[in-house]
Fold each of these.
Amino acid sequence: MIATEKVSTREIERKFLVKRLPVVDLENFPCDEIAQGYLATESGGVQVRLRKKGNVRSLTYKRNLKNGREEREIRISAEQFEALWPATAGRRLTKVRYEMPWKGHTIEIDVYTGRHDGLIVAEVEFADEKSCTAFKPPDWMDEDVTGKARYSNVLLAHE
Amino acid sequence: MIATEKVSTREIERKFLVKRLPVVDLENFPCDEIAQGYLATESGGVQVRLRKKGNVRSLTYKRNLKNGREEREIRISAEQFEALWPATAGRRLTKVRYEMPWKGHTIEIDVYTGRHDGLIVAEVEFADEKSCTAFKPPDWMDEDVTGKARYSNVLLAHE
């Protein structure tokens, strides 16, 4: 798939800080190194992001809508990526993402590396509000930081 | 060529308004229809631009440096272009560019179409300051608008 286009209402998800990792071997779960950087970010919420996740490189446009979010993503070649990547200097972050199945959900555990070493965030996406509300986080998930700009990737990258 | 990278000092160029076109048949010169739109523009001068010039589609990152300009451009496929293009709605412009040879220079004549119909701008790039200063514009070139933000493409696109 070369391109995706998604005009979505608000994603139903929750995000938690993780102070201590679950006592399982994370390396057993699917994982990818992610490096991402921002070409441009407008104060109104427009972002143009470059990302390398494993061997998949992409360019993503995101924008806040009145009641949701527009997202357009294209796969790009290594050559296209390398030509643009230097422009993201000073606006990057790196992390390792583990996808941990848990009680019918997939918990994405992002272990930040580099400048944000020590920060670990867990995110769960839900199909509907009901399952979101019903979700009881495992005890290794700490503070609920859902929606807190402080932990948005775009802010972390610009720090 | 899939990608170009250019960190340049200020381009040495002059830009003029054209009130009446030169009395030659412009159609004899190389010409291309150009459609361009902006994915993001930061107040500090960062731009991410999509452009279709003839059949060539590109994505360009531009940024002002202290003493010059950084420009990174990648060729993109029709599919990549089409996935991103809708995001530029309301931030587009269209023009036809003619490349007219004139006394050893190439004059780029941009005839705007659509919303900016009636606007015609001629631009000449020079190898050095000396030839720039020495340049005597032909009489069909009117007001010198070099460096005037009013006639920058990014501003025109956002009008």
Note: Chain B touches chain A through 29 residues (CB under 8 Å).
Amino acid sequence: MEPGETKTFTFKATHPGAYMYHCALSQPWHHVAQGMYGAILVEPRGGLTPVDREYFIMQGEWYTRGSFGDQGHQEFSQTKAFAEQPELFTFNGHASALNQLFRLEAEVGETVRLFFGAGGPNLGSNLHIFGEIFDKVYSGSPETFLANQETYHVPAGSMAAFEFELDVPGNYVLADHALYRMSRGAMGLLLVSGEHDESLYSPPAPRPGE
Amino acid sequence: MEPGETKTFTFKATHPGAYMYHCALSQPWHHVAQGMYGAILVEPRGGLTPVDREYFIMQGEWYTRGSFGDQGHQEFSQTKAFAEQPELFTFNGHASALNQLFRLEAEVGETVRLFFGAGGPNLGSNLHIFGEIFDKVYSGSPETFLANQETYHVPAGSMAAFEFELDVPGNYVLADHALYRMSRGAMGLLLVSGEHDESLYSPPAPRPGE
Amino acid sequence: MEPGETKTFTFKATHPGAYMYHCALSQPWHHVAQGMYGAILVEPRGGLTPVDREYFIMQGEWYTRGSFGDQGHQEFSQTKAFAEQPELFTFNGHASALNQLFRLEAEVGETVRLFFGAGGPNLGSNLHIFGEIFDKVYSGSPETFLANQETYHVPAGSMAAFEFELDVPGNYVLADHALYRMSRGAMGLLLVSGEHDESLYSPPAPRPGE
């Protein structure tokens, strides 16, 4: 395809689930390494169970000749891509997308379904939300879910759905629990407002003067 | 054991499933790094549900002092093995085994059960078939399957079973979706012949002159 | 918190399961990289099904400027931590903890529930016991288990429960099946004593003179 050109194809969605898509033109790894991918949701007949909030997030990793934090245009490093040693990570395409620019917001009492994918090109993500346990996680059909997940590994080239309920207000950190990736972009924020319930969580008393 | 020697042991297979086997003589990592492993299937009583095709594939990674593509005998690199930085990947023992030498073949309408393992010695595989969604994936008992999987992570030292049905003809690429591994051997082809069904997939119209 | 200071907080455990905990003070990766984490079990109402033995093991990896085997104090290497290239691995905090100092012991006929976690800071573990198949594995709720698992991937930042029964006496090796990690600490021993049952396993006959 040339720039500006459009093409149309049709297909019958035979398998409900959330999936990653990307072009498969030779060589697909180079295109995916430039962020050319997205997410598609195929709902089961009758739809998924209703929730108050749905979010779509895709993690990607980036192989640049320069180091994390270097400014300006960064050349692609094929050496680092082969070594699976990225310089930075993004949620939805920018290292600051969900922790500074577009933080997620919700209210206590709401139910959430987060579709989270690992675009790669190489690395999966170990999704965790600090302070939250996922009620259900499923990659593929919601009928074969896993319950009460703390951290779930999403392989490169796939999506999973994470369902949870917000019980306590606060600023929740979403992260790849390969923790050193957090410091290079694999991190977002979910700001939850609402009434605090001391019976669920009672923080330590502040020091005198705090 | 000396070369040419044979030994016999017997065991009762108590857990149905598909498993990797390898020697555990000290030090097992060196033997596995030389490809000394295989796959064993223990069928449940009454057998697995019949399918039209069954394939067994094991991925392995190789740590050589030379680079991918170098010709002739390659010395083993313990440094790269400790760093988990292989030079090449194989499906069934050769980087060209399933994409050039012995391509898999099947027909539209057939059901397939693919047993896929990650021999390692270190790395798991993120199995994906471009253009296909797995109806069921199970590592271990078929009773605890996961439905509608796009990409499934098989840890080093294990097998999983992937069941799917072939709806549309074409050349399907099997790959580790850690995509840069594809370019160094982690890739095979499944050639599916048969009638095309436009109601399932209608490709873009060719350009004038194509 | 200052050294020697204590603080108290309370919370209602709303999700049964086994979980990893760690401080989330900025920057959590540095604290986790120093081993500041642990395991917590929230039993479902009525408790988990009784077993004869329960063990808690957490794997961690360590990023030192020196190499594996160097003696004395080792400085932390941030470069290796970012590259996810550790020098050594531990089960419960010491590279010799469970293979030399405190080997696990059990008897033939006993049932075991092993809670195994991957503290990280970066790497998951591919838990395998040489010579054993896990009857059930669950990360989170025991209701959504996977049966007959050979090797199970525990992501960094989580725990899983592994249930199995001991049929044959012997010295069983527990390991991260990313095999080269075994040689740098990711390994423990479970010594199982009791009657040998030839109908379950009959080893090869010894050579004359052995």
Note: Helices of chain C lie at 28-33, 78-83, 97-101.
